[in-house]
Structures are given as C-alpha cells and as structure tokens.
Amino acid sequence: MIPAIALAVVGGVFVGLINGSLVAFVGLQPIVATLAMLVAGRGVALVVSNGKYKDIRDKDFLAIGTDAFLGVPYTVWIAAVLAVVVGFVVRRTVFGRRLLAVGDNRAAAQLAGVPVKRVLITVYVIAAVLAAIAGVIQVSRIGSADASRIGLLIELSAITAVVVGGTPLTGGKVRVLGTVAGAFLMQLLTATMIANNLKDSTAQMVQAVIILVAVYTARERRTR
Description:
Strand order of the largest sheet: 1-4
Shape: globular
Number of helices: 10
Structural class: mainly alpha
Oligomer: single chain
C-alpha cells in the first residue's frame, strides 16, 4: 500500500513540475497548461490500465476511504488537516505572501524581488500532490481504479467551490475556509439532486449557473 500511495504522490509531483514549467518558463496560460495536462494525464492512465476497470482488494488501502476515527471518517480528517495546513501556509508564511503577490500581479511581484518562477512551480507541485491525494482517497472509497471515470468533470466542482467560497478567479486573494464551505455546499446540492432522482446533466447545469452567478456577484462587489 505504501509504495502505491508514494508512487501516486510522485506522479503528482511530476505533473506539477510540468504544469509549473509550462506556465513559468514557456509562458502558457494556466488554464491551457492544466487542461492539456488533464487530457494527457487521463490518456496515460488509460494506457497504464489498458483501459480496464481495476478492482482494489487491499483491506488497509480500502480502510482509508471507508473507516472512521472517533466516529469521523478518515477522509474528513485528511481533508480537515490539509485545509488547516494550506490555510496556515497562505496566511502565516513568507511563501503564502509571495503566492498572493504573484496571483495579484505577476509583473509587480517580479519587480518587488519575488522569485516568481519558483513560486509558480512550487504552487503547481503542491496543487498536483493534493490532487494525487484526492485520487488515492477516491480510489479507496469506491474500491476500484477506473481511469475513464474517476475525476471526470471534477474540475467543474473545484472551480465552483472556489468561486462560491469567495476566492476571485483573477487571483490575489485566497479564502481557504470559504472554499471548504463552497465544497460542502456543492456536495449538499449534489446529494439533494441525487436524492430527488435528478440526472447528472441537471446537476452539471446547476453548477454552471452557480459559477456564473458567483463570478458576477464577485465582479459587482469589486466594481463597488
């Protein structure tokens, strides 16, 4: 189990290095670089798995996504710890301040002496490692690895949680607690729609509307 999880995390580091390098050195737009890697990564996963559904039978690995501690699922503990760590890094460290500066105005941060390229690569590596951890948890929860479906359209849910949580897509501000609340809200809406036998397509349309409303509301607040 440990080597498998370590390999997933190393894969995340590798993907983060590629994304960060494409943005920092090549100058690609972040959305272009990450979407390209999303497609490429899923293609690699399909090749590695030979396009087949892989059952997981390791009990210790499955326990990550199914067992609980003090009545709280391990997945919730992991998410809570990671949210606290990210919040601390953003709010209380030099790297966090540099990150916000780069997100707000990359050129100004460069003139202020911030190592912009190093910050960009580091944050992309961190994001990719967190995505790898999320993938490990998801595989553990469902007990199988399905390269064609796991994580499908999860980027839409991630964007929705961030925007609803109050973090502007233009950068410069990070609201970790708001993002967590946004994720809970979207999960609640999804569970509600599933309970009412609504189709996935309906849930996706609802998410799209929520993103548009949240972005418009944030823009109106900035213009005031």
